[in-house]
Write a structure and sequence with these properties.
- By secondary structure, the chain is an alpha+beta fold.
- It is built from 18 helices and 15 strands.
- The strands form 5 sheets. Strands 5, 6, 13, 14 and 15 form a 5-stranded antiparallel beta sheet that branches.
- A hairpin with a 2-residue loop joins strand 2 and strand 3.
- Helix 15 (430-453) runs antiparallel to helix 16 (464-499).
- The longest helix has 36 residues, at 464-499.
- The model has no long low-confidence stretch (mean pLDDT 83).
Length: 551
């Protein structure tokens, strides 16, 4: 079968060349479509359930919220572990799924099982899912700076929460924009308990009155002069005076009692759980852009930067957006380093092939097949969902040296057969000699490359973070060797027929080969003379390396 493939490829030059161009174009497309990142994603398949219950103690949050959610999730399919954490007014439940589970399938299962626990939670408590992102989703961070002093931290935080955050969340590939720093503005009512006692008004009545007053209500329709007029009550709070004038009841004389009679209404900050500081110049307000799971990190960062440039004219006067973290620089430098090493390795392999083959056209056969196999490896990366990172590209770099082995052996065998053909008076066609030479070694070379391909199979048995770290390298290395095996029996015979022309110099005339043979022959002859001594020494070395365990 392999002999037929070699002969068909060598004689159908147009079809093989056309197929090669098509595959190379496909591979180039895969190079630009494959997501770029600095490192592979080592995160577990995790879904976070976040619940707020303001003002409650951690033990109450644990009993009323965290425990019911954790126990309900233990029965979900493909669950690896469930971990819960309770804080003052906050509950976090981390649901870890088994490796290989699709993240969105896992999120749908969590939503399904959360429906069964909703009735067990306190009234008004609504759990929410965390963003569909992983631990390496933090790709960009910025800070809002006002050097003119026109805006304080509360105004910067309000602009971040109500405008800038939503502008950036609309960018494709962004899962969440988390705000940090500044002060969250609140309407605060500081109630005087002595006044409440004097007016005989409970605190609960104040809370209910403010809640009821912050609402629009609809009335009926009034028809007048053949027109309909909608009657409605507009009650949304727009200023501090609206809160101050909220009625709570009347005293014994019928005088209305309002909120300002029992307390002080002000604008103040919410309780802060952290702050942001920039370059030792004081506090600031910032935002963290979290990338959606499976997205191209570099493309998402570029889209975020474009969006920031687009909205810059819409920023309030005096506010600037400064980039404080940008992973694109790390990604580009990591990929550039690996590209440089790939080029260097390819050049070294090409030079060595040229020196030892001692024939420029023959060396071109090995040199030209190398980029074809590399481009085809990117096809495997794209369709397997592997990002271009330091591990996946390292797999290709490891395989480059072995990818040209089969082609070089084919060329060497063709040189020998062409030397014999010249000595025999050039009987028969030159193309037939090259094809027969490729067929003689094609089958063992093809299967030897396949054996090298499966040599990384134990790596695929690694689990957890080790597997997620080294599997990209194993995938790309195996794919590169697999495509190199097919290129060696398809494209290589075609290039050999095209390029191996002219007179082939005998191997003995190559000065490099002569030096190596001169060094190699004494070692082989000496080893054959004392072969029994070599075997005994080897057995002794192996025996001494075996540990002995005793009492």
């Amino acid at each position: 079968m392999i002999d037929r493939v070699i002969e068909w490829s060598a004689r159908n030059t147009f079809l093989v060349f056309l197929a090669t161009l098509f595959l190379m174009g496909w591979g180039l497309w895969a190079v630009y479509q494959t997501p770029l990142d600095a490192i592979p994603d080592l995160s577990d398949v995790q879904v976070i359930v976040f619940t707020e219950w303001p003002g409650r103690s951690p033990d109450l949050v644990e009993d009323q919220i965290t425990y019911p959610i954790v126990t309900s999730m233990l029965g979900a399919p493909r669950i690896k572990s469930v971990r819960g954490q309770s804080f003052l007014g906050l509950s976090f439940v981390y649901i870890i799924f088994q490796d290989g589970t699709d993240l969105y399938w896992a999120r749908s299962r969590v939503v399904e099982y959360m429906q069964g626990v909703t009735g067990k939670l306190p009234e008004g408590v609504s759990p929410t899912l965390g963003p569909d992102a992983t631990g390496v989703g933090w790709v960009f961070q910025y800070a809002l700076v006002d050097k003119s002093g026109q805006h304080d931290l509360s105004e910067l935080r309000s602009f971040q929460d109500w405008y800038l955050r939503y502008w950036l969340q609309s960018v494709p590939g962004v899962a969440e924009v988390a705000s940090i720093g500044g002060f969250v503005k609140q309407y605060q009512v500081q109630v005087d308990p002595n006044k409440l006692l004097g007016y005989h008004i409970p605190l609960k009545a104040v809370i209910e009155a403010i809640r009821r007053s912050n609402n629009d209500v609809g009335g009926r329709v009034i028809e007048a002069s053949e027109r309909e007029y909608m009657v409605r009550g507009r009650g949304y709070i727009r200023s501090l005076d609206d809160i101050r004038h909220v009625p709570l009841g009347t005293d014994r004389q019928g005088t209305p009692i309002t909120v300002q009679d029992v307390g002080r209404v002000t604008i103040g900050p919410d309780i802060r759980r952290g702050l942001a500081e920039l370059d030792g110049q004081g506090e600031t307000v910032g935002g963290i852009v979290v990338m959606r799971y499976g997205e191209n990190a570099l493309a998402v960062i570029d889209r975020v930067k474009d969006k920031l440039k687009e909205i810059t004219p819409s920023l309030p006067k005096g506010i600037e957006i400064l980039t404080v973290y940008d992973r694109s620089d790390l990604i580009l430098r990591a990929i550039a380093t690996l590209k440089e090493k790939l080029v260097e390795i390819s050049l070294v392999v090409s030079v060595i092939s040229l020196v030892f083959l001692f024939h420029l056209r023959s060396a071109l056969v090995a040199i030209l097949t190398l980029p074809v196999a590399i481009l085809l490896s990117f096809l495997a990366m794209y369709y397997l969902g592997i990002t271009s990172n330091i591990m996946s590209l390292a797999g290709i770099a490891i395989a480059i040296g072995a990818m040209v082995d089969a082609v070089i052996v084919m060329i060497e065998n063709a040189h020998k057969r062409l030397e014999q053909w010249d000595r025999a008076g050039q009987s028969g066609a030159r193309t037939a000699v090259i094809i027969r030479a490729a067929q003689e070694v094609g089958k063992p070379l093809f299967f030897s490359l396949l054996i090298i391909t499966i040599s990384f199979l134990p790596v695929f048995t690694l689990e957890a973070q080790e597997g997620r770290l080294f599997r990209p390298l194993a995938f790309t290395k195996s794919a590169a060797m697999l495509f190199a095996a097919f290129v060696s029996i398809t494209l290589a015979p075609l290039l050999m027929v095209w390029l191996i022309r002219g007179r082939i110099a005998p191997e003995e005339r190559n000065p490099i080969n002569r030096i190596l043979i001169w060094l190699y022959r004494p070692l082989v002859s000496g080893a054959l003379r004392v072969r029994w001594l070599v075997v005994i020494l080897a057995i002794g070395a192996v025996g001494s390396s075996i540990p002995l365990y005793g009492k």
